[in-house]
Each structure stands twice: as structure tokens, then as C-alpha cells.
Amino acid sequence: MFEVSVEASFNAMHAVTVAGVDETPHTHDWKAVVLVSGKALDEDGLVVDFITLEQSLDRVIAPLRDSDLNSVKELDGKNPSAEFVALYIGEEIEKTLPPENNLVSVTVTEAPHCKAIYKP
Q1: pLDDT of residue 105
Q2: At 10, which helix (H) or strand (E)?
């Protein structure tokens, strides 16, 4: 088994609702790490091409970059927690992977020492 990961950063604002109370809108420098696995290497000796995976991640987070996550249509009006952002990224990345690869996890860092991990 092999695993590879890529990461990307983006700035975005959000205000999460916790126990019915809306936070004050605030901005983070978000970081997303996508971890993908494969059982074998392809004819080029790769699990998946880093550049291809980076481009996929960039396309997935493009609508989130420099946005208000509470109003981004891709998040469908859901509470924009780090957990939900990780879920959104994971589900979208899975659509781009070749059948021989599996998404292992998406880790979203909202702030230093504050991470949410999605594992399908």
C-alpha cells in the first residue's frame, strides 16, 4: 500500500453556529491536506501524479478562496465548520480520483492546533 498527500492553503471567512448561537464572522488562513492511497504503482512508478492531485485540490477549493463560507453556494448553506469544509473537500476530491485510488483522509486546519479530519 502506498499513500501520497498534497496540501493547499486559502483565506476565507466564516461564522459557525454553535448551540444555536452565531459566532462573530472572522477570517482564517485555512489549510487542506488530502491523503490518497493506492495498492500498486502505475507504469510511471506513481500512485497518483502529484500535479494532477494538486490541480484537483485547487479546483475544489477555488470557490472557497477569499470568500465568506457562510454564503458559498458549494457549501449549500450548511454550517461552515472545519469538519464540514473537510467533508466537502473530501467528497469533491473523491469524484476526481481514478478507480485504483482511494481517499484516505482530508485534514483541514482552521487555526493553529485546530484540525478537523474527514475519513470516508
Answers
A1: 98
A2: strand 2-14
Residue 101 three-state SS: strand
Q: Which of 93, 113, 117 is nearest to 105 (CA)?
A: 117
Can you give the residue ranges of every domain in the chain?
2-15+26-118
C-beta separation of 1 from 39 below 8 A: yes
Beta bridge partners of residue 67, listed in sequence order: 12
Q: Which residues of the chain have pLDDT under 50?
A: none
User: Span 2-15+26-118: which CATH code?
Assistant: 3.30.479.10
Beta bridge partners of 4: 36
Rounded CA-CA distance 47/34 in Å is 14
Are the C-beta atoms of residues 75 and 88 closer than 8 Å to each other?
yes
pTM > 0.85: yes or no: yes
In sequence order, the 6+-apart residues with CB closer than 8 A to the CB of 49 are none
For the chain, the 3-state helix, strand and coil shares in percent, each to the nearest 5, are 25, 40, 35
